Write the structure tokens for this entry.
Amino acid sequence: MSHRALLLANRHARHGQERLPQAIDCLRKLGFQMIEESTEDPKRLPEVIRRYKDQVDLVIIGGGDGTLNAAVEGLVDTQLTLGILPLGTANDLARTLGIPDSLPEACEIIAKGQVQRIDLGWVNGKHFFNVASLGLSVQITQRLTKEAKRRWGVFAYAATALGVIWQSRPFRAEIRLKGESISVKTVQIAVGNGRYYGGGMTVTHDATIDDQRLDLYSLEIGHWWQMIALLPAMRSGEHTSLPDVRALHAKEIEVYTSKPLPINTDGEITTYTPAQFRVIPQALAVLVPK
């Protein structure tokens, strides 16, 4: 394959400043000719990708899930192959795809790995890689600071979660799928496309990013302290078999609430309910380990 690449590297990602020079040197030694563009304004990333559509053969994104989410619309529009340098805090998409945190290994995968087509989730016109959710996870996103992520890494997610769980309040929602309508009282609804999210939480035990389905779970607990008991199972994805967790699967899902609630896609608040979700099968080509 050709080695002309557009490099979009977030130097403010948790490991961006210290490890990016190593990655650039590694990629050059592997024969890449790179055009590097700034990620200072994430909203411009799709436009930047479109601008270089005919000049490069792949887009290498160095950062975390937020940087990848910011660029996804440009990747969909151009259908350029994606290479990933995991420089963020959680790196949940990289984890889902089996891409290690080791930058030399990640560079080798970009140079010599195989191309895999992956699904994308879609909600209200916005694509996402990992998970879209409303409720408790939005409160965690709003409370989680860049400083905490830089200082504590993935442990910042757990610490922030523990800080907001006791304040969580259930809300009522209507979930529609496969011609059925389900009314729920819940503290969180999550709709997953990939496998991992939130610093290593698992959507459900058998989720993959190319299974052409969405996996929904709803946390229907009555007291905040019940959430503490759920956390270990959420790491492995076994929570979906527990009594207070509703698990559903479909290609298209609708969620309605009495008032608009914010929706978090891959760690960024991007839309509000009412929400229409769907899976877009084999939407993108990504370089993964052989």
Observations:
- Residues 259 and 273 are 8 Å apart (CA to CA).
